[in-house]
Amino acid sequence: MTVREALNSAIEEEMKRDDKVFLMGEEVAQYDGAYKISKGLWAKFGGDRVIDTPITEMGFAGLAVGAAMGGLRPICEFMTWNFSMQAIDQVVNSAGKTLYMSGGDVSAPVVFRGPNGPAAAVAAQHSQCYAAWYSSVPGLKVVSPYDSEDARGLLKASIRDDNPICFLENELLYGASFSVDDAAMSPDFLIDIGKAKIMREGTDISIVTFSKMVGYALEAAEILAQKGISVEVINLRSIRPYDRDAIIKSVIKTNRLVTLEEGFPQCGIGAEICAFACETVFDYFDCPPERITGADVPMPYAQGLEEMCIPQVNDIVRVVSRMCIGK
Questions:
Q1: Which residue among the candidates 13, 57, 149, 169 is catalytic per the annotation?
Q2: 2-27: pLDDT as tens digits
Q3: 3-class SS at 312?
């Protein structure tokens, strides 16, 4: 099952399960979605529940938040999370803070979803990772799936959650196929928000990552295994809240930590995790934790420069090999 199919099936099942769930966004209806995530949904559910919007993110994000406050469960698609900058006041202030400011009386169970981070040759204004931006906000939950199982379980859990969710997908993973077992195909399959998954057990070093970089970490782990380095790969799945217990247990076992992300280094997800690890399990480290991130520059358009700005498998192998010298 492709990630695209997993997302589509999750939305369809939740719309069948609960008639309060509806989808809105640019080109999600007759056109079946810019990335075909909503393929077939307009034909099955009609224009009242699969709604094409004008190109006005602040407007339709505000409509989604208002609908959520009124008792519905909207899924609000951004064609890319880069465009959510037009709607950030609605996401952060209207959705993220209202439950607290209303003394717990008004919730906003809305799922904002769409592709996040670099795609391919779409330059600086369409290539940013917003995991760090939105995960810094109390009141929002932020999740980011890697494979098809993640996509199904996390999206279904997000739609049922009573809090506003930022659901960060990856455009380059939409067409990627992953095996999905029978349990994950159940209409009742959910993944707990806030729980990481150990993708590969290891004893020498822990790589903590999310989204597309999970695949890169697994590739690097295979190469490093040939060098006698045993790598543990943790797929965060959830960025806020993130699974602190999983990180603690892994570092206590491996005594080394490297974080991996496509976003910028300053105030990034890796910076948060390294700070947390140093505050809690510092005495277990055999060497300082390190971050592998995107380059600290706006994303170039040229393919060769773009590749230099995004972590590659050889970068992971190089950093981990250096950290494990004399292990």
A1: 57
A2: 999 999 999 999 999 999 999 999 99
A3: coil
